[in-house]
Design goal:
Elements (H helix, E strand, L loop, with lengths): L1 H21 L2 H11 L3 H6 L2 E10 L2 E10 L3 E8 L2 E8 L2 E5 L9 E2 L9 H4 L14 E10 L2 E9 L5 E6 L6 E10 L2 E14 L5 E9 L3 E10 L18
Antiparallel strand pairs: 1-2, 1-13, 2-3, 3-4, 4-5, 5-6, 7-8, 8-9, 9-10, 10-11, 11-12, 12-13
């Protein structure tokens, strides 16, 4: 009897494993979309403001991020008595960092802005990826912090590649791997998402975001959907005329 029961359990578990393996990238993305609030909710998000604390090297800095979907993003943070700004759009960007002794806005390099679109797409770049010109494939499973996850490979229309890791229990993205140019060098970026929360109207977001190798941690305390944001916040201020 025990042998039959054991065999039955083994068959059942094998069937469950086969069901997990049989899922396609489209099916995984569809379940991820539903988990984050559903198609209608994600499509309805045209702007977002997030506030919280940025933790770097044992220090905390308050921040505010304003995003107009697929148009631009403005990051403001206070550090060491200074107010700092970084702006990114699909065609460029600039920053003004008094904390680094900058007194005038500086244009960001084209390489730095190469994959900024992934941060501006409030729907999430996996959702409707094909329509956006990207390709996605389910390349298998991986282990993320002791949990088995789906591993999706996203090849963007500009040729860059990112890997997304999705928890099959929740269908939340728990990790993303990509490469980026920083100070003229290519490096691998690993972003981990955790402590997911839901807004009153059903949108789900990660309230804790950690990124290596910079060892930064973002803790989001407030999210506002579809606030009134004007594109003027993305405009670079004019440089102070030389005397």
């Amino acid at each position: 009897m025990k042998r039959i029961l054991g065999l039955t359990i083994a068959i059942a578990l094998s069937g469950a494993a086969l069901n997990v393996q049989a899922q396609t990238a489209d099916e995984v993305i569809s379940k991820h979309q539903a988990a984050m609030g559903g198609e209608a909710k994600l499509k309805s998000i045209k702007s977002m403001i997030s506030e919280g604390q940025l933790q770097v090297q044992g220090m905390e800095f308050p921040f505010k991020v304003s995003v107009i979907s697929n148009t631009g993003m403005r990051v403001e943070f206070e550090a060491m008595g200074t107010k700092n700004i970084q702006v990114a759009t699909p065609t460029g960007g600039w920053f003004l960092l008094p904390v680094q002794q900058q007194t005038e806005p500086v244009d960001a390099s084209a390489e730095d802005m190469k994959d900024v679109g992934s941060e501006l797409d409030l729907e999430g770049e996996l959702v409707n990826a094909k329509a956006k010109g990207h390709t996605v494939e389910l390349v298998g499973k991986d282990n993320t912090d002791g949990k088995e996850t789906f591993k999706l490979k996203l090849t963007r229309k500009n040729g860059s590649v990112a890997y997304y890791f999705i928890d099959p229990a929740t269908y939340y993205i728990t990790k993303r791997q990509s490469t980026a140019s920083m100070q003229g060098q290519q490096m691998e970026l690993v972003t981990k998402m955790s402590e997911f929360k839901k807004t009153d109207d059903g949108y789900v977001y990660a309230s804790v975001i950690e990124q290596a190798p910079m060892e930064t941690k973002v803790v989001i305390s407030k999210v506002e959907l579809n606030p009134e944001i004007t594109a003027s916040i993305l405009e670079k201020p004019a440089k102070t005329p030389a005397k």
